């Protein structure tokens, strides 16, 4: 580990950061990631022009990420472990996933399709204006499974590796990929560095997340199905990390996700994810519970390793 914290300390801080997130949720005002998003938007407008756009994109990435990570490192050095836990709280998004997705399920159950469309449009980039209830449930379930890795497990992984600064590094890199990593004419070259860096940082967390979804399928057949879907479907997905996460999660839930989705008025035929029934309103809560259980599994695994080390150091 790159952090100077002991593993027992990391276990306690992980639990503290997750607990703060569940109790407090996202900061209502002055959330650091909102300010960072504004900075990223400003950098892209200023630097994404002319020639050498790949190198301009890499320079913009460094300008956006390096100063906050250095500041986080200095804060943790000066303020101690409590600052690490606070940084984890600001970086993790477990409760946010619940708060943004469960209202979609409630709107679908109550038959309020217009509200469900508005709520879904806040969390996905696909068109929702004419989406059916099944389309909306599918979009929400996919978002939960993928962002379980991006907003929760990748952050936990890099916190274990490098403490608060590691969590900050991952979340900022992931945010830039979400803003710049599109294969459009404007962003293809400029956002290439952001996309590749995020792929590298996410490689191990995504596969640990996919494995966790396999292990937490409710039946043995579900575990086998999740494993088969991961191995067979992930290579066809355009993202090297979203593919394993979403295919294993869909397989674990017994859902048929992926397939057609509308972006900018055009239908995109995406590879299939999982197998089983189409997603419905109740499956949004099932996807949320899978993400929540995976969080508890990760915390329990770290605790299972940390507690014997603590006992050995203090009572041997």
UniProtKB/TrEMBL annotation:
Protein name as annotated: Cobalamin biosynthesis protein CobD
Organism per entry: Rugamonas fusca
Keyword match Transmembrane: yes
InterPro entries membership: Cobalamin_biosynth_CobD/CbiB
HAMAP family in alphabetical order: CobD_CbiB
TM stretches of this protein: 6-24, 54-80, 151-173, 290-311
Superkingdom in the source lineage: Bacteria
Listed GO biological process terms: cobalamin biosynthetic process
Function statement: Converts cobyric acid to cobinamide by the addition of aminopropanol on the F carboxylic group.
Protein family membership: Belongs to the CobD/CbiB family.
Pfam families in the cross-refs: CobD_Cbib
Gene Ontology molecular functions: ABC-type vitamin B12 transporter activity; threonine-phosphate decarboxylase activity
Keyword set, alphabetical order: Cell membrane, Cobalamin biosynthesis, Membrane, Transmembrane, Transmembrane helix
PANTHER family assigned: COBALAMIN BIOSYNTHESIS PROTEIN CBIB
Annotated metabolic or biological route of this protein: Cofactor biosynthesis; adenosylcobalamin biosynthesis
Membrane-related topology note: Multi-pass membrane protein
GO-annotated cellular components: plasma membrane
Gene: cobD
Subcellular location: Cell membrane
């Amino acid at each position: 580990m790159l952090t100077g914290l002991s593993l027992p300390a990391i276990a306690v801080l992980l639990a503290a950061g997750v607990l703060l997130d569940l109790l407090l949720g996202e900061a209502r005002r002055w959330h650091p990631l909102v300010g960072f998003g504004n900075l990223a938007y400003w950098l892209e407008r200023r630097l994404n022009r002319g020639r050498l756009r790949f190198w301009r994109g890499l320079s913009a990435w460094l300008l956006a990420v390096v100063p906050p990570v250095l500041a986080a490192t200095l804060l943790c050095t000066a303020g101690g472990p409590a600052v690490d836990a606070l940084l984890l709280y600001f970086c993790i998004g477990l409760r946010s996933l619940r708060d943004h997705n469960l209202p979609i399920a409630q709107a679908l159950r109550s038959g309020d399709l217009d509200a469900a469309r508005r709520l879904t449009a806040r969390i996905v980039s696909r068109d929702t204006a004419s989406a059916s209830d099944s389309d909306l449930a599918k979009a929400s379930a996919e978002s939960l499974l993928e962002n379980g890795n991006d907003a929760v497990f990748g952050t936990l992984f890099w916190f274990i590796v490098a403490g608060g600064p590691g969590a900050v590094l991952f979340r900022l890199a992931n945010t830039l990929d979400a803003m710049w990593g599109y294969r459009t004419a404007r962003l293809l070259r400029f956002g290439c560095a952001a996309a590749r860096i995020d792929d590298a940082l996410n490689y191990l967390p995504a596969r640990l997340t996919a494995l966790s979804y396999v292990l937490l399928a409710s039946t043995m057949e579900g575990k086998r199905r999740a494993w088969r879907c991961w191995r067979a479907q992930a290579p066809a997905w355009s993202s090297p990390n979203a593919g394993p996460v979403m295919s294993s999660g869909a397989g674990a839930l017994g859902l048929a996700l992926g397939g057609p989705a509308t972006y900018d008025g055009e239908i995109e035929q995406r590879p299939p994810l999982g197998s089983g029934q189409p997603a419905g309103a109740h499956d949004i809560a099932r996807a949320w519970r899978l993400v929540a259980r995976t969080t508890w599994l990760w915390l329990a695994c770290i605790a299972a390793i940390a507690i014997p080390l603590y006992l050995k150091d203090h009572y041997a």
